[in-house]
Amino acid sequence: MSKTHTITRHEAQLRAATLDVQHYQLHLDVTDDAEFTVRAVVTFTADQAVGQDTFIDLLGHRVHSAQLNGHDVDYDGARLNLADLQAQNELVVHSSAPYSTTGEGLHRFVDPFDEAEYLYSQCEPADARRIFPVFEQPDLKATFGLEVTAPAHWSVLSNEPGAQRVDGDVAHWEFANTPLMSSYLFALIAGEYVEVAAGSWDERVPLGIWARKSLAKFVDADQMLEITRAGFAFYERNFGVEYPFTKYDQIFVPEFNAGAMENVGAVTITEDYVFRAPVPQATVQRRAITILHELAHMWFGDLVTMRWWDDLWLNESFAEFVSHLAAMEAGFEAAWTTFNAVEKTWAYRQDQLSTTHPVIADMVDLDAVAVNFDGITYAKGASVLRQLVAWVGTENFMAGVRSYFAEYAWSNTEFSDLLRHLSQASGRELSDWAQQWLHTTGVTTLSWQLDDDELTIYQSAPVRKHRVGIGFYNFVDGRLTRTDATELDLQEVTTITVPAASLVVVNDQDLTYAKLRPDCASLQLITQHLGSLDDSLTRSLLWGAAWDLTRDGEASASWFLDLILEHVAAETDSSVVFSLLRQAATALDQFVPTTQVQQSREVFAKGLWHLAETAESGSDVQLQLVQAYIRHTREATVVAKLAQRRGLEGFSVSTDMAWSALQRLVALNEAGETEIAAALAEDDSSTGYLAAVKARAMIPTPEAKAKTWQNITGGTLTNLELRNAVMGFHDVHDLALLATYNAAYFDQINELWAASSFETAETLALGLFPMWAITEQTAMQTSSAAQTTSYSGLKRILTELHDDVHRALAARAAF
Length: 815
Ligand SMILES: [Zn+2]
What we know:
- The chain is α+β, with helices and mostly antiparallel strands and 815 residues long.
- An 8-stranded mixed β-sheet has the order 5-4-8-2-1-11-14-13. The protein has a 5-stranded mixed β-sheet with strand order 16-17-18-20-19, covered by helices on one side. It has a 4-stranded antiparallel β-sheet with strand order 9-10-15-12, with no helix packed on it.
- The two termini are 42 Å apart.
- The relative contact order is 0.07.
- The structure holds zinc ion.
- Residues 262, 293, 297, 316, 319 line the site of zinc ion (ZN).
């Protein structure tokens, strides 16, 4: 979103008190390939505000005519000012605007493979106003009627089913009116999309899976439909309300910024989840969670909606939490292991930054909303819901949710409404819980000491009420096996008598949200035997403890990297492997001193290759080891073989992996434009095109880097071109190539931020940051840039980057 055109919570509250919006009747013409035109008729009442003024949002349009109740209205580029309101009002606006290329509003994409055109909308949190005039806030729900004029050979999808009438080379589409919904859930998807699979849920709800023509053959729609149906069954049973909308389409859309979006009846999903080559099971599982997350929103978010973005956390955390419950039912039995490895790691990181905030955030305006789609809102919120459920019981939790849905269907609510229902259902007073978990910040560290049969557990600040499991592990047939377990509520210091155990694990089963600090004896045992623990969730918890020690500078990055090489091959959970290899990359990039990083990287890469050679042929862990190897190695001969799709015995190198290998060769100066062009000629898909963008950005000459910098900062790249160019830009083997850009970043970032939409600005601020130069000087420059910028979103990003640099300096000192 354009950062200068915010809407404040106060303005939204005033509008909600003044207006009641009935209906938007929209006609969009998308036959032109540069801009779309809109005719909108908005009907609303203002019984208590006759004669007063208000405004309606419309961002970046050319307004041809705009009349309220027959009188012309003014437009300032972001708002139409509505003066002299009547009890019953009709606003008629005719306008046009260019398509978006940043994934915000109505995005347009042309497939480089076949020149086919694709449009899709993305409106959350406040980008419906880029498409049509709208009272852009979640609590002014209305019905939407949509007509679309489009090229005759296109498919057009929206929230409700539509029918077309073809007239020469155009088609006129008319969609059924939606039920009451918030504007951020509006959807228009149009272009040469094809329906890959169709089906139904319970013969009641039509299901569709859609994708671009050129990707359709890669979509494994059967598995997606199966997961979707499992989700329908789970949610209808547990929520006590049948699916509230007419149909359920899931559409893979190009150049999508997020994972997916819960538009009513028309969920859009990133094409990263179309697998044209083998991907780790971690990614397959993440897709399943995403499918179930979006489906949960149809009830929690779409049917019952937050009043304002203060409750965004609840919207997202609830969907994230219940999607893991549903995933268990859909056959992903290790869903809580993934939750630990992925979600919690994200939450702990975010919660230790100086910018952390209570789960219930203070969203004063849209700028605050934009930066709060973060690890607190999604992951910490979901973690504390898991702790809440451990405390009140799953059945009570679901009973409260059911009565909440029954009371608030089709309307807007606040968190206190849900809390009241949960409290009634469980018979527990929850305001104290909410105060401890939702209104405070920070992660508690749980440390423990075992003396014979006496276990003492200590909480660091912030001290909270934790419901935890304690697991007792002993060696059985050479494996560390849980032989006993208990559950209890923790005090600030808790001492209990325990059965004999080789290893005690506090927060066994991962019910609470806390960092773990095992005692010295336990750490020694973990270092030796982590891979032999028989429970993937316990392993993930202890891997997490090891990572925290490393991030906190209490153990060296080399210890952590060795631990991975020692035990990763025994890891059966794909998400844990995925998370570990990502942490290894962070450790090498940030926590190893510059003078030693080359050697550490070499040792680690060699270790990975050795493990890949001895791993089961074609296994998930082997795939991930080879991917990580390509990321870290400087060994051109092996990479060259992989680029030519040769390498390990019995291991098939996919097109995507061959691209990664070629990119590494480019960075090593062992391949260049000729090889990139040849690879692109063989793979002229959109994936190939983006891989080439990244490869070109990796060419290791000062001239090429200068050109890439110009491209990146020139404002002409689409969101995904930009992301790939940025990734390639800083992936260098010789840091001297980037030296001149340390200063350039600080010189230009304010200007770049001001000139870009939020998504672009965020990519630039994070992706171009000189993380390649971890020095006191960078830390100082970052902190002074954070202090002087007048943009709150940029200030927050720079503050977090400053924290990262600081943490890296401390970790290096511990090396
Ligand atoms: Zn969501």
